[in-house]
Specification:
The complex is a heterodimer of chains A (431) and B (283).
Chain A (H helix, E strand, L loop, with lengths): L4 H21 L17 E2 L1 H4 L1 E9 L8 H18 L6 E7 L2 E9 L4 H9 L4 E5 L5 H4 L4 H4 L2 E6 L3 E8 L6 E7 L1 H13 L5 E5 L2 E4 L11 E4 L5 H15 L3 E10 L1 H30 L1 H23 L3 E2 L1 H14 L1 H15 L4 H31 L11 H35 L1
Parallel strand pairs in A: 1-13
Antiparallel strand pairs in A: 2-4, 2-12, 3-4, 5-6, 5-9, 7-8, 8-11, 9-10
Chain B lengths: L3 H21 L6 H4 L1 E7 L6 H10 L4 E7 L2 E6 L4 H14 L4 E8 L1 H30 L2 H29 L5 H31 L5 H33 L2 H37 L1
Antiparallel strand pairs in B: 1-3, 1-4, 2-3
Helix pairs in contact in B: 1-6, 3-4, 5-6, 5-7, 6-7, 6-9, 7-8, 7-9, 8-9
The chains are: A alpha+beta (431), B alpha+beta (283).
Chain lengths: 431, 283
């Protein structure tokens, strides 16, 4: 009763290739393949990898509402810079607004010293302007950046009023404008005289962010940095400069420190629980549906491989609740199969031939499968909050659960219906 | 549907137990909602908890609870500032030189209130979305109303059961519990949809048959698959609750209770409710 044997063959080939691809992506560490492409590793969230999470209340009372967005952006990029200096490339810094209050959320995976992390973030940004020193030529080869720019100009972030991006009237290229306060204007005039045709570097927390050449003496306190900017890089430089100029004060309202050992224990316990559960589910399927159950289990293997591959490729940051979501979704993945097999049984009882019963089972169960899964998708989407609506939770734990659940449902629709159906068609042919 | 009085009795018992427990004992909110601190530390010298209480008293920090396991201590107290935390670190290092920190969280109560507001909002939004979906799907108000009532039945009993579990076993309401409630909403509707789909299908085939016998047939035909469906989820969640460790235990239990309720209510609450509504219309 297979409506199109050639198509089945093609589908089986697709399934085989997909499985092979997922196997390669999930190749265990230690096995090397002659491939130049390395699949990205699984990403673990803070609760599994261990680390520090800090939430700050941002004090916005002293800020003019119109300059708030740029001040927030500046604060964020300032903290990011600092965190990166600390050697934490995995760090996640974000600002969020709740009604009329603003939050700064910082996640530092792998950090084990809460006090040190808080100290690092809590300082105010230090913006320093330093002039180029005249080093002897033989020393320049080994000189560090700080050696080259070692002449203090006495200009710091407190002398800078603001920085903004403008479009040059001459070249129509974006450029970055710096405006100084009266004291800064005098100091800057002196510095531009001293370093005319030399470079002045601007350091944010001892990290150089730009080092333009002084082209003329500037005495009106308005300096323009021009060069190879696109609007994005100009904005980012301006934000960094503002970070030193507009320090928003922040208050710590939540801190969280999770030791890495707890996370490792949780992962190994989660894997153990998942394997035991998986074993029971497989046993149950074979016990209840025999050969059909075996096919469903095969579908489950494909399901697991695809899911893990997607976790790596997207990438999904795995958290505790995310692992629960994954384990739960394994239980739900065979749902569609149970609906279909029960339907098949009914058709068989009605005296239909095996192949006919199978096709009818798939066809009739589809309505229920579709409806039932739509409900779960609706809820998972509300939990995941894809548009980051502020009136819904944006908790990383909740979203971690929602994303694994959502992916689980979508993939299980594919494996539970498409994969098992084609496998069964092949099996039916042999009967 | 001969069992309808029995189902009604079971549901009434569960609902009244939930109401009783919620009003008598209330809930145990976690620091997610109430604010406060949670600190997991290891003290190899295994000091008596009185010594720990003393440290907190001397630092004027109000202590909520101390639970111990081997040389691990789980201490809960009010929310504190960084200098207070540093002072605690110093005091504990004096108590035990090998003092180690496994986990520390502190949260101001204002953040908790905000989270509570958001989670209540997401529950309302989910119910509304599911109600609209069922209404559209079945184009018959009786179906929609009974499915949503069954959904509230499940959610209410789940919440009530955590009031009981909180009173007797210390289960706390946290962000993950709310996640479990939302998952239960969808699981409940999920199971009801399967049963209702069958009732509708049978109705198309023989629309002269009485609703009672239609529902009877649909329930008995879908019961096995509903139970089997839940069994696989129950296997996964049960092993997670038993083997998965402390962090996710209550989350897994909440999901488990939700899954069982969802299956139960599809035939024991949703279908009888539908019958009730349909019969009233006929009379």
């Amino acid at each position: 009763m297979n409506p199109n044997p050639a198509k089945t063959k093609k589908n089986i080939l697709i399934i085989l290739l997909l499985t092979l691809l997922c196997l390669i992506i999930n190749i265990p560490t230690g096995v090397t393949l002659p491939l130049s492409y390395l699949p990205p590793p699984l990403k673990y969230g803070l609760d599994l990898a261990g680390g520090v999470s800090l939430t700050y209340q941002i004090n916005t009372d002293d800020i003019d509402p119109s300059s708030l967005p740029s001040a927030l952006e500046a604060l964020k990029s300032n903290i990011e810079k600092r965190v990166n200096l600390f050697g934490l490339s995995e760090a996640n810094v974000q600002t969020s607004s709740q009604a009329d209050s603003y939050r700064l959320i910082i996640e530092l995976p792998g950090v084990d010293d809460l006090g040190q992390a808080i100290g690092l973030i809590g300082q105010t940004a230090q913006l320093n302007f330093k002039g180029e020193s005249s080093l002897p030529p033989e020393a320049t080869a080994t000189a560090t950046f700080a050696d080259v720019f070692s002449v203090d100009t006495d200009i710091s972030g407190s002398h800078l009023l603001r920085s903004s991006v403008q479009v040059s009237p001459n070249t129509s290229q974006p450029e970055v404008l710096l405006e100084f306060n009266p004291e800064g204007t005098l100091l800057f005039e002196k510095a531009t005289q001293q370093f005319l045709n030399q470079r002045i570097a601007i350091f944010l927390d001892d990290f150089p962010i730009t080092f333009p050449v002084v082209q003329s003496v500037i005495s009106d306190g308005r300096a323009v940095i021009s060069g190879d900017f696109d609007s994005k890089s100009a904005k980012s430089l301006s934000a960094q400069l503002n970070a030193g100029a507009l320090p928003l004060s922040i208050d710590l309202i939540q801190q969280q420190h999770l030791g890495a050992t707890l996370g490792q224990q949780a992962i190994s316990k989660g894997i153990r629980a998942g394997l035991v559960g998986l074993f029971l589910v497989c046993l149950f399927m074979v016990g209840n549906y025999g050969k059909l159950g075996l096919i469903a289990n095969l579908g489950l293997v494909v399901y697991g491989l695809i899911t893990l591959s997607l976790y790596r490729l997207i990438p999904v940051t795995l958290t505790f609740p995310g692992v629960v979501g994954f384990i739960l979704s394994v239980g739900m993945a065979v749902d569609s199969n149970i609906l279909i097999f029960e339907r098949m049984r009914e058709e068989l009882r009605n005296g239909k031939e095996w192949g006919v019963a199978m096709e009818l089972g798939f066809g009739r169960a589809w309505d229920s499968i579709k409806d039932a899964n739509t409900c779960t998708i609706i809820t998972a989407l509300i939990l995941f909050n894809p548009f980051a609506w502020t009136f819904l939770s944006s908790s990383g734990l909740v979203r971690g659960f929602a994303i694994t659940l959502l992916l689980g449902i979508l993939i299980s629709l594919f494996t539970g219906v498409f994969v098992t159906r084609n496998l069964l068609r092949v099996l039916a042919k042999q009967k | 549907m001969k069992l309808r009085p029995l189902f009604l009795a079971i549901s009434l018992i569960f609902i009244s137990a939930s109401i009783f427990s919620i009003f008598r004992w209330g809930f145990r909110p976690s620091i997610d909602f109430a604010g406060g601190s949670i600190w997991e530390i290891s003290l190899p010298s295994q000091p008596h908890s009185d010594q720990i209480t003393q440290i907190f008293t001397s630092q004027d920090i109000s202590l909520l609870s101390i639970s111990t396991g081997a040389d691990n201590y789980l201490i809960k107290f009010q929310d504190i500032s960084q200098p207070q935390k540093n002072a605690l670190d110093v005091a504990f290092r004096q108590l035990d030189a090998d003092f180690g920190q496994l986990r520390f969280e502190t949260l101001s109560p204002s953040l908790g209130k905000e989270l509570l507001k958001k989670t209540i909002f997401s529950i309302i939004l989910s119910s509304l979305a599911l109600f609209l979906f069922i209404g559209r799907r079945f184009k018959d108000r009786a179906f929609g109303i009974s499915a949503v009532l069954a959904m509230f039945h499940d959610t209410f009993i789940l919440i009530g059961s955590f009031s009981l579990l909180g009173h007797f076993f210390g289960a706390e309401l946290d962000t993950l519990f709310v996640t479990a409630v939302l998952t239960t909403l969808s699981a409940s509707v999920h199971d009801t949809v399967v049963t209702f789909d069958r009732i509708r299908e049978l109705r198309f085939k023989n629309f002269k048959t009485e609703w009672v016998s239609l529902a009877n047939q649909a329930v008995s035909e879908t019961l096995v698959r509903s139970v089997n469906n839940s069994m696989t989820i129950i296997f996964m969640l049960l092993s997670l609750a038993i083997l998965g460790g402390d962090t996710t235990r209550w989350f897994a239990i909440a999901l488990l209770v939700g899954a069982v309720l969802g299956t139960y209510s599809s035939f024991a609450v949703a279908a009888p409710l539908l019958l009730f509504l349909k019969k009233r219309k006929q009379n």
